[in-house]
């Protein structure tokens, strides 16, 4: 198939450091190429891909200090793709609501994977303006705020099986890991308290966005001195196998409706069990008692740390291989592409009935 992948412009594809959506777009794009599809990636010019790259903006917006109005770059992206839209069997967008007005009128097969939270009032207003636009969710729980949208499928994320692997021999260092972003909803404060109560060291590999700097300075910095806490900062994919693979467990103590939670499957790829709070996608991603434990509060999280020896780390990796590879993700998307490209004016259920 001739497939267009339209990525966000905030980070390169793949991102140099933090960047969940761009990382998933990269894994999907490369897997589609390996499956023999003709793939074009619309992304920033500093992206790297085996697909044909259409560099819509010179470099990732987050790395460009000259950018003051990032929406201007997205206006360029939409027009750039629109001019080439009829060259493809399907257009796959990863840029929220930006394509909806224009591409709903072009008569070309397109779909949008929504990667973020959908429980804000303004999202309800904008998405319900386009009731027939086809959307893909990254978990069933992500859909709950917008049940009336034209959801054509749920595709759980996947990553290349050899990207992150368990270490050949663990270092024996006894610590817990927190990976991701420092913000109130990610629960790094909870992670610090859980580790302290368990008497264990906590290593934090996390990004601090500008919007969260005040929170980090006021709420998290004081906690860093209260126990055995090591703040590492952002890390890249090459650093993750050692960071995750040598940890006793990954703490995922979120307090928001997480749409997916990529760090959970990154830990699983390294054979590391996850202790995750029961919010959003967690019950869909985690197999309680197999890939880790699902808990409801800090007390249960501390108790779960005492049961880690019951988790088989080889079994954690095996569960990743069964459920969360990039090939499985790509095959799921190709099935959607094929059905949607036959009848772009219909929902997938209607398209199947028409075949």
Could you explain the architecture of this structure?
The chain has 355 residues and is α/β, with parallel strands linked by helices. Helices cover 35% and strands 18% of the residues. The protein is built from 13 helices and 13 strands. The model is unreliable at 344-355 (pLDDT under 50). The longest helix has 17 residues, at 326-342. The protein has 2 domains: 2-159 and 326-354, Rossmann fold (3-Layer(aba) Sandwich); 175-323, Glycogen Phosphorylase B (Rossmann fold). It has helices at 20-34, 70-82, 100-103, 121-127, 188-198, 213-224, 240-245, 262-269, 282-285, 298-305, 313-323, 326-342, 348-354, and strands at residues 2-6, 38-44, 52-57, 90-93, 110-114, 134-137, 150-154, 175-181, 201-207, 229-231, 249-252, 274-277, 292-295. A 7-stranded parallel sheet has the order 3-2-1-4-5-6-7. InterPro entries: Glyco_trans_1, Glyco_trans_4-like_N. It comes from Acidisphaera rubrifaciens HS-AP3. This is Glycosyl transferase. Pfam families: Glyco_transf_4 (PF13439), Glycos_transf_1 (PF00534). Keywords: Transferase.
Mean pLDDT: 93
By oligomeric state, this entry counts as single chain
Fraction of residues in H or I helices: 25-40%
CATH homologous superfamily caption of the largest domain: Glycogen Phosphorylase B
Per CATH, the class of the largest domain reads Alpha Beta
**H and E order:** EHEEHEHEHEEEHEHEHEHEHEHHHH
CATH topology of the largest domain: Rossmann fold
Largest sheet: 7 strands, parallel
For the termini, the CA-CA separation is 19 Å
Q: What is the gyration radius calculated from CA atoms?
A: 21 Å
- Determine the structural class based on helices, strands and strand pairing: alpha/beta
CATH-scheme architecture of the largest domain: 3-Layer(aba) Sandwich
How would the global form be characterised? globular
Counted by DSSP, the helix tally is 13
> Beta fraction of the residues?
15-25%
Q: Are there runs of 5+ residues with pLDDT below 50, and where?
A: 344-355
GO molecular function: glycosyltransferase activity
Keywords: Transferase
InterPro entries: Glyco_trans_1, Glyco_trans_4-like_N
Domain Glycosyl transferase family: 169-302
